[in-house]
Specification:
Length: 311
C-alpha cells in the first residue's frame, strides 16, 4: 500500500507525533497505514518496533544491559505519550522547528516556510535547505551503542545501522525508502559497555530535547577502551562527536580528560535559533550534558570520577 500510494500515505504507529501534526496540517495525506501489527516483544537485545517507550524504559533486561537506551526511552515526552509512542516511531519521528511546529493559522500568518507550503527558510533565509532539528531521544543512544534496525518493504527485509537511517536535511531526514517499515531494533552485545543519556529541556515533565548526549563507553579499569558520543537536537540528524570518542580511547578517566572530551564533543554542535531557549546557551550546554553523560556512564562501570561540581 505504501509503495502504491507514495506521498499520499503515511505510516502511523502510536500516533503521538503524527496526529498532532496532522491537526496542524503539517502533512497532506489521504491515507494512514496503521502499524499496530508490529511486534512489541522485547527479547534479549531485540526490541519489536511496536514496543511502547514505557515498555522499553521499564524492561528489566534493557535497563540492566542497555541502561542508556532505557534511560533515553524513559525521558521521551510524558508518561501518557510513552504508553502510546513506540520505539520504531521514535526513530522515525519528524524533525522540529519553532517556525514549523505551529498551527496552520500561525504558519499562514508568517507566509509558511520551506518545510511545508513555503519557499524560504525563516531561520536561515539565504539557505537553500531546511535546518529543522532532529529531536528523537533514542536515536542518538541507538547510534552510540551501535544498534541496527530491520527494515521491511515490498522487496523483503534488510538490516541497517541506525546511524545510516538519517540524512542531514530537515525535510528529507530519513535515508530509508518511504515505504520501508522499521520492524525491529537490535542492540549489540553490551558486555562491559556502559551507556548513559543526558537530556536538556525546559520542562522535565514533557518537552523535546534542546540538547542531549548519548554515551556508550567500554572501560578497562579506569582506562577507556572505546567510547562513542552522539549528540541530540543540535542538527537535522543525530551528530556523532567522533573526535571526542577518539580522544578518550586509551586515556585514564579523570576530571581533566572528561572535561577535555566534553569540550571536543561540543565542537560539531551548531544549534540554530529554531528551538526552545537561545541557541548560544544551548551550544554552551552541550559541553555540560556530554560531561554529565560521560560521568554517569563511568559510574555505571564502578569508577568514581569526580567533577568539580560534585559535593
Ligand atoms: C507533547 C509532546 C512531547 C514530545 N516529546 C518528545 C521527546 O521529548 N522526545 C522524543 O523523542 N519525542 C517526543 N515526542 C514525539 C513522540 O511522542 C515520540 O517521538 C514517539 O516515540 C513517536 O512514536 P509513535 O509511535 O507515536 O510515532 P507516530 O506518531 O505514529 O509516527 C511518527 C513518525 O514515524 C513514522 N513511523 C512510525 N513508526 C514507524 C515504523 N515502525 N516504521 C517506519 N515509520 C514509522 C510515521 O509515519 C511518522 O512519520 C513528543 C510528542 C509530543 C506530542
Ligand atoms: S529550519 Fe527553516 S525551512 Fe526548516 S522548518 Fe525551520 S524555518 Fe522552515
Amino acid at each position: 500500500m505504501a509503495k502504491e500510494l507514495g506521498p499520499k500515505a503515511m505510516f502511523v504507529a502510536g500516533g503521538t507525533d503524527l496526529y498532532p501534526k496532522l491537526k496542524r496540517r503539517q502533512f497532506d495525506v489521504e491515507a494512514l497505514i496503521g502499524l499496530d501489527f508490529l511486534d512489541h516483544r522485547i527479547d534479549g537485545s531485540s526490541i519489536g518496533a511496536g514496543a511502547t517507550l514505557a515498555e522499553v524504559a521499564n524492561h528489566p533486561g534493557i535497563r540492566g544491559a542497555h541502561a542508556g537506551y532505557a534511560e533515553a526511552a524513559g525521558l521521551v515526552s510524558s508518561p501518557p505519550l510513552r504508553n502510546a509512542g513506540t520505539a520504531g516511531g521514535n526513530l522515525c519521528v519528524d524533525t522540529r522547528c519553532n517556525y514549523y511546529d505551529m498551527t496552520y493559522e500561525w504558519r499562514k500568518a508568517i507566509g509558511y516556510c520551506l518545510k511545508k507550503d513555503g519557499d524560504i527558510c525563516l531561520v536561515a533565509p539565504s539557505s537553500p535547505r531546511c535546518w529543522a532539528v532532529s529531536s528523537s531521544d533514542t536515536a542518538p543512544m541507538a547510534i552510540a551503542v551501535g544498534a541496527t534496525v530491520i527494515l521491511a518493504g515490498p522487496d523483503g527485509e534488510r538490516e541497517a545501522p541506525v546511524a545510516a537511517l538519517y540524512r542531514d536535511d530537515g525535510i528529507d531526514y530519513l535515508a530509508k525508502e518511504p515505504y520501508e517499515v522499521v520492524t525491529e531494533i537490535r542492540l549489540p552485545d553490551a558486555t562491559e559497555t556502559m551507556s548513559a543519556y543526558v537530556k536538556l529541556r525546559r520542562r522535565g515533565s514533557i518537552d523535546f530535547p534542546i540538547a542531549g548526549a548519548a554515551v556508550a563507553l567500554r572501560l578497562d579499569g579506569d582506562v577507556v577502551d572505546r567510547c562513542r558520543i552522539v549528540l541530540s537536537a543540535v542538527a537535522s540528524h543525530p551528530v556523532e562527536a567522533s573526535a571526542a570518542g577518539d580522544f578518550l580511547a586509551g586515556k585514564r578517566l579523570d576530571e581533566e580528560t572528561v572535561r577535555a572530551a566534553a569540550e571536543l564533543a561540543a565542537k560539531p554542535a551548531k544549534p540554530l535559533d529554531n528551538a526552545d531557549l537561545t541557541h548560544f546557551w544551548r551550544k554552551r550546554m552541550v559541553r555540560v550534558v556530554v560531561e554529565e553523560a560521560l560521568v554517569q556512564a563511568t559510574r555505571r562501570g564502578g569508577s568514581t570520577v569526580k567533577l568539580a561540581s560534585d559535593p
